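Quality-control log, excerpt.
Job 1 of 2 completed; input and output follow.
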Amino acid sequence: MTGPKRTDRPADGRHAEGTAFTIITGLSGAGRSEAAKCLEDLGYFVVDNLPPSLLPKMAELAARPGGPGGRVAIVVDARGGVFFGELSKALEDLEHVGIPYRIVYLEASEEQLVNRYEATRHRHPLAPADRVVEGIRKERLMMEGLRGEADLIIDTSALGPHELRDRLRDAFADAPAEQGLQVSLLSFGFKYGSPRDADIVLDVRFLPNPHWVDELRPLPGTDERVRTYVRGQQTYREFLRRLRALLGFMVPGFVAEGKSYLTVAVGCTGGRHRSVVVVEDLATFFRDKGLAATIEHRDLDK
């Protein structure tokens, strides 16, 4: 699907006047229902499996006195046989009448999706003759265009319901309008796999590794002794200087394009030392610029 350009919409639809739409979509079994429940708990008016052609009508109803107002979430999925041309036209109609929207896309690895279907004994909506894996692959291909239009992509492969709710609460927490862009910073270890939902992935395995210093090996990257070691390297100081300059150049462009969320993942070998220090320093960098920044150290305790 080729969606309409959204460069003229507010940088964050949550803070636009009037109605704004959050569209929840993604792969079956990836957590759309849990996401919908979470937003409902946050005060959103949630409509499940609304045909795309009814989006403009829903916007009209939401804007009426006594309607749900500006916090509306719509779940769009393959159960209703989503026609991407129809959805694209509906989004263009929202643009035309000045209603901002954002797309949240949930996905997971093929292995995790198969396990979830086997655990629940549910049938995949696109699976021929109950062959779940074929349905997953067909749906992933079908949804690829919509994934490319998403404002926020969340990989739920390693997330339970509580972790998914925490991630959504962080993303949808009320913040001052001028912040515009919410930044999620993730440290991880390449030995445990790269995150699928990052906008930017940085590999810091070239930095001197505290793992090879006996007294530092058992300590986490949040320990001051590890921080002092990593930050004391000339290579690290030069890297961070150049990285800050690059991100300082990129962030205004993301904001100008109407991006509401930015996920930056930083990886080292095990995700315990170097990547943790970099993420902590980047959080300070973004917060000094007045941007909301959350931190997750995925592999710190492994």
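Job 2 of 2 completed; input and output follow.
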Amino acid sequence: MVRIGLLMLGLLSISGCAPLSPIATDTPLVTRQSPSPNFDERRPNYVVLHATSNDTAERALATLTDPAKKVSAHYLIGRDGSIHQLVAERNRAWHAGESYWGGLTDLNSASIGIELDNNGDEPFPDVQITVLLELLADIKQRYRIPPANFVGHGDIAPRRKVDPGALFPWQVLAARGFGLWCEAPPAAPDAFDVRLGLQALGYELVDFVATTRAYRRHYAVGDTVAELGAGDKAILHCLVRLKAGG
């Protein structure tokens, strides 16, 4: 009988019908366990780029791993190109905070956060950007993240944040498919609505001045003048068309 029982257990395992492991209990209410094999983990669909605002990677790591600080990211890339992984990609890191992009108000739950070792007032070393591009290529390939979904912390939280900062090379990233970029496009149509364009790109409009500054910091190569000129409107119109696939 023992041999028969073992044989049946083996057949169940081979056929894929072996009993499933108990599932975690999420509610305090009494439940009956009925595990289903039909599930998978959440897949991140955005990448949010940050600058640490620290002078060393060690200081940034101390902050990002301190339980009292309640802040983290999935990766930190040092000035020397070293990569530190702090949180598993499938888990929710605490890097975006109060945020908004394209209708989402909880970017932490939908994104991978990457911190760059940079004090906010210095150029990003070539080796750091090279490693970042390699990491982004790997992430994009595995999760099929569209180009428009690579954004900065300042884009998703324009009233609070400015990172990765005015010196970040967005154009270099966009040339590799990580973000959108338009170079000297034709003028926007007279009927083009700037507010609707910014909203279509993903920005919130609660503080219009903060949003236009964030937009120009990203797409006007670091210029943070709030007023949008004809060139800015042309670029915005082009970006919206790119995002829409037009």
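Post-run check on job 2. Residues 121 and 167 are 8 Å apart (CA to CA).
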